[in-house]
Amino acid sequence: MSAMLSIRDLRKTYEGGFQALKGVTLEIEQGEIIALLGPNGAGKTTLISTICGITTPTAGEVTVGGHDILRDFRAARGLIGLVPQEIALEPFERVLNTVRFSRGLFGHRRDEALIERILRRLSLWDKKDAQVKELSGGMKRRVLIAKALAHEPRVLFLDEPTAGVDVELRKDMWDIVAELKADGVTIILTTHYIEEAEAIADRIGVINRGELLLVEQTSALMSRLGKKQIEVQLSAAISAIPPTLARPGLSLAGEGDVLVFEYDTQAERIGLTGLLNAIAAAGLVLRDVNTRQSSLEEIFVDLVSEETP
């Protein structure tokens, strides 16, 4: 099956020589959710802008549903919905007309039932006759999402869609994303809420300085790069780790009453049994034992740090 979105060696160099994208290659299947993570200035927004036709690529090829974004722009763009970071709306227009206009802009016939469903889904129906300028920031964000959905896109870009919004909208947003995925819509999102990416994305892509460092199944990435910690709480504090316990990955924490052992989940031999036996042999009494898995945020920070000179 051909990819819904295919990106091959995409490059963008601005006047003056700055390379915002350095040969990005990525294929995304229909109905897949991909989260793009990266620090500010990594190239996330440039990548989205280029695919959506807002920015012209310097080199490379992008197809959406088989349509080239340059040679067949109208067909490609008609498949795309975009929720941008910036809130750019006509302040004196009414909500209902704003969303209607977006549908008409893509050449679709008027569909009042569809527009009503979208507005109700986003808790905007009771605001349909309000001018945009009368809305709160969170409500304006909802209008942006409604506009992006009005022409029934098959690929949806969400560029930091929940940045600075309330918890209720964030929950609504991810509920809608789940519904769209079930309908076969392909979703690409950028977010600084890394725990959300971990929870909702099928794959995670990490981009930094215009390069795609990796794209991997979320669970596989967590398993491959994640580390686990065992925290052994002692019944009494010690001033230093006894020589018989010393080994790589073991440290003393808390007020001298916690031993922390960090290990690679993929290692053939972890050595937990030997560590616990050595603790007992050293005359130390265990009060409790806890385990902890690295979060995606920690993995992301480690990856980006490795790439930063």
How would you describe this protein?
The mean pLDDT is 87. The two termini are 40 Å apart. The protein has 2 domains: 5-222, P-loop containing nucleotide triphosphate hydrolases (Rossmann fold, 3-Layer(aba) Sandwich); 227-293, Alpha-Beta Plaits (2-Layer Sandwich). Helices cover 33% and strands 28% of the residues. It is of the alpha/beta class. The chain has a 6-stranded mixed sheet, with helices on both faces. The chain has helices spanning 44-51, 73-78, 95-105, 112-121, 137-149, 167-182, 194-200, 218-225, 272-281, 296-307; strands spanning 5-13, 19-28, 33-37, 59-64, 67-68, 80-83, 155-159, 186-190, 203-208, 211-217, 227-234, 250-253, 258-264, 286-293. β7, α6 and β8 form a beta-alpha-beta unit. The protein has 10 helices and 14 strands. α3 (95-105) packs parallel to α5.
| CATH homologous superfamily annotation of the largest domain | P-loop containing nucleotide triphosphate hydrolases
- Strand element count: 14
Quickly give the structural class: alpha/beta
Across the major sheet, the strand order is: 6-7-8-3-9-10
Overall domain count: 2
What is the 3D form? elongated
Give the low-pLDDT segments: none
Strand proportion, as a percent range, falls in 25-35%
Using only CA atoms, what is the Rg? Answer: 25 Å
**What's the total helix number?**
10
Mean pLDDT: 87
Helix content: 25-40%
Reading off the top of the CATH hierarchy, the class of the largest domain is best stated as Alpha Beta
Keywords: ATP-binding, Nucleotide-binding, Transport
GO molecular function: ATP binding; ATP hydrolysis activity
Organism: Antarcticimicrobium sediminis
Protein name: ABC transporter ATP-binding protein
